[in-house]
């Protein structure tokens, strides 16, 4: 019969077989540090000092165990083994006299429920912090059974350990003294705030407040940029901190992806992963488009798209504002959205005599960005004359006085400021000038020695602010221009030239009217006013005589 292993040695053998790398090097893995890693054990009752993640060759650790157990051996040393470094022995915690030693691994294979006379323990009685390492198809365990359990990794940190169903005070009860689970700080995506350039991630502990025994590490690592041409801005510096239970990452690039990770480092349980996720940053406000050209003849604006590093360009917003220095009440505003595929804009029409400010802003999901601005002024055009004013209204031709009454109205300054109204008189039989020849006429005063077209008057626009009448041929001299009386029986053409003048540029428009100097004759069937007056007087006289006759005949005679 071969030698029988002591329970502690048997447990050590089981642990060596269960823990990868505890008895031999793990194939395919290289030790990055010329020394030993921390002790790997599932026995939650085992602890050691000093605490570190790596240990130098020859360094010794002092071992301790939970109450009721003692370490075997009491210390371990980091030594060099075949192709690796490791501890000289695998330590275990051995029960002291009077305590039970955990048996070898209990098979998780399904089997009939145990009905040990001493009673049993139920899985429903486990603390909420633990779960079985391997699945068991039974809910109860007999007194004396041991089960490998671990802390629920989603909420707790701790090493795997044995728990046993023991009888205490005559009742079956789970002994979990060898398992220590520490609740992790809670981190959830609901506590994440991400803008275009920063990330804020908060976590909390239970009870609310500081997290005793924990320190924190976190980082935001760039994993993807929105475009291969995007580079980190030279003046932007990434800063990361974990203060007040919050991860702060500032100076991040918009529309980029960052791998966010948070670790909690516990004094006993080491580093624990609390949060890990890829976060896509919000789009930023785009830069201004780049100016390309302005076609002054057609007023076509062209630009180049801004960098896509702050987000995908969804389109462009064109804002147009028109004002006039000579008319403070004038305001033209327009907003146009242009597709992202277009990089030019032409407004139809551009109003004459207007100062325009045009801005172009690229659009991302964050909204409109910085402005590309144009300032330009359109030239004035020929004054606008409404269709209803194309013919002068001529009234009261007086051949005897040599005058004609004209009705004038102020015209709108749609194409430029109206400066003055010029009246010309062209006597016939010379060829009458038409409106097309009007702009070339000179302000020539009246000359009685010839029959050429002359200027009768110049009316400043400031004097014609509402409808008014003007008498052609009234014989008055106005600023060197004589308004000569017209001759009876002659044919005339009166021309009105409307002049617009701005910034040393002058334009004009004209209307004309032909007439003959003779008194107006009554229409056929029309009764002169004097005849009507005489007839009315005769009727009234007859009525008066009839009334007197009636009064006389009704008065009695006195003899």
TrEMBL record:
<dbReference type="InterPro" id="IPR036116">
    <property type="entry name" value="FN3_sf"/>
</dbReference>
<keyword id="KW-0325">Glycoprotein</keyword>
<dbReference type="InterPro" id="IPR003961">
    <property type="entry name" value="FN3_dom"/>
</dbReference>
<keyword id="KW-0732">Signal</keyword>
<feature type="region of interest" description="Disordered">
    <location>
        <begin position="96"/>
        <end position="122"/>
    </location>
</feature>
<feature type="compositionally biased region" description="Pro residues">
    <location>
        <begin position="101"/>
        <end position="115"/>
    </location>
</feature>
<keyword id="KW-1133">Transmembrane helix</keyword>
<dbReference type="InterPro" id="IPR013783">
    <property type="entry name" value="Ig-like_fold"/>
</dbReference>
<keyword id="KW-0472">Membrane</keyword>
<feature type="transmembrane region" description="Helical">
    <location>
        <begin position="527"/>
        <end position="552"/>
    </location>
</feature>
<keyword id="KW-0768">Sushi</keyword>
<dbReference type="InterPro" id="IPR051622">
    <property type="entry name" value="R-tyr_protein_phosphatases"/>
</dbReference>
<feature type="domain" description="Sushi">
    <location>
        <begin position="34"/>
        <end position="95"/>
    </location>
</feature>
<keyword id="KW-0812">Transmembrane</keyword>
<dbReference type="Pfam" id="PF23144">
    <property type="entry name" value="Fn3_PTPRU"/>
</dbReference>
<keyword id="KW-1015">Disulfide bond</keyword>
<feature type="signal peptide">
    <location>
        <begin position="1"/>
        <end position="25"/>
    </location>
</feature>
<protein>
    <submittedName>
        <fullName>Uncharacterized protein</fullName>
    </submittedName>
</protein>
<keyword id="KW-0677">Repeat</keyword>
<dbReference type="Pfam" id="PF00041">
    <property type="entry name" value="fn3"/>
</dbReference>
<dbReference type="InterPro" id="IPR057598">
    <property type="entry name" value="Fn3_PTPRU"/>
</dbReference>
<feature type="domain" description="Fibronectin type-III">
    <location>
        <begin position="285"/>
        <end position="383"/>
    </location>
</feature>
<dbReference type="InterPro" id="IPR000436">
    <property type="entry name" value="Sushi_SCR_CCP_dom"/>
</dbReference>
<dbReference type="GO" id="GO:0016020">
    <property type="term" value="C:membrane"/>
</dbReference>
């Amino acid at each position: 019969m071969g030698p029988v292993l002591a329970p502690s040695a048997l447990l050590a053998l089981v642990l060596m077989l269960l823990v990868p790398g505890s008895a031999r090097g793990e194939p395919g893995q290289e030790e990055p540090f010329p020394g030993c890693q921390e002790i790997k054990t599932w026995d939650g009752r085992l602890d050691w000092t000093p605490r570190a993640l790596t240990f130098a060759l020859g360094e010794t650790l002092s071992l301790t165990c939970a109450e009721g157990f003692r370490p075997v051996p009491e210390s371990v040393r980091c030594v060099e083994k075949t192709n690796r470094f490791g501890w000289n022995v695998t330590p275990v915690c051995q029960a002291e006299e009077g305590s039970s030693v955990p048996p070898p691994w209990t098979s998780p294979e399904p089997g009939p429920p145990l009905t040990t006379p001493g009673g049993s323990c139920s899985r429903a009685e486990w603390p909420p912090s633990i779960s079985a390492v391997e699945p068991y198809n039974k809910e109860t365990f007999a007194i004396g059974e041991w089960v490998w359990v671990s802390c629920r990794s989603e909420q707790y940190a701790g090493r795997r350990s044995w728990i046993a169903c023991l009888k205490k005070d005559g009742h079956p009860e789970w002994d979990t003294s060898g398992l220590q689970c520490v609740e992790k700080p809670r981190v959830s995506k609901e506590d994440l705030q991400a803008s275009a350039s920063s990330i804020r991630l908060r976590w909390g502990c239970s009870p609310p407040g500081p997290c005793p025994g924990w320190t924190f590490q976190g980082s935001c690592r760039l994993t993807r940029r929105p475009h291969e041409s995007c580079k980190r801005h030279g003046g932007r510096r990434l800063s990361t901190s974990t203060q007040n239970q919050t991860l702060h990452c500032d100076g991040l690039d918009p529309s980029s992806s960052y791998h966010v990770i948070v670790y909690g480092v516990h004094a006993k349980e080491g580093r624990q992963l609390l949060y890990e996720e890829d976060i896509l940053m919000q789009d930023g406000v785009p830069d201004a488009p780049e100016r390309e050209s302005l076609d002054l003849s057609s007023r076509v604006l062209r630009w180049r798209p801004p960098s896509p590093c702050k987000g995908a360009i969804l389109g462009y917003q064109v804002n147009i504002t028109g004002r006039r220095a000579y008319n403070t009440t004038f305001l033209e505003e327009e907003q146009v959205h242009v597709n992202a595929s277009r990089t030019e804009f032409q407004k139809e029409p551009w109003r004459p005599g207007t100062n325009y400010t045009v801005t172009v802003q690229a659009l991302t999901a964050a909204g409109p960005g910085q402005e590309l601005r144009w300032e330009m002024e359109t030239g004035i055009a020929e004054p606008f004359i409404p269709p209803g004013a194309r013919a002068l209204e001529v009234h009261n031709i007086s051949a005897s006085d040599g005058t004609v009454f004209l009705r004038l109205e102020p015209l709108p300054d749609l194409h430029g400021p109206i400066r003055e109204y010029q009246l010309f008189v062209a006597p016939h039989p010379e060829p009458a000038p038409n409106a097309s020849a009007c702009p070339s006429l000179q302000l020539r005063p009246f000359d009685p020695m010839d029959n050429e077209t002359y200027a009768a008057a110049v009316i400043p626009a400031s004097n014609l602010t509402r409808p008014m009448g003007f008498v052609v041929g009234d014989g008055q001299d106005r600023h060197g221009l004589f308004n000569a009386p017209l001759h009876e029986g002659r044919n005339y053409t009166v021309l009105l030239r409307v002049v617009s003048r701005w910034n040393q540029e002058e334009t004009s428009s004209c209307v004309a009217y032909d007439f003959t100097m003779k008194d107006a004759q009554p229409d056929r069937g029309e009764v002169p006013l004097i005849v009507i007056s005489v007839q009315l007087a005769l009727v009234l006289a007859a009525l008066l005589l009839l009334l007197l006759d009636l009064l006389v005949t009704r008065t009695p005679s006195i003899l």
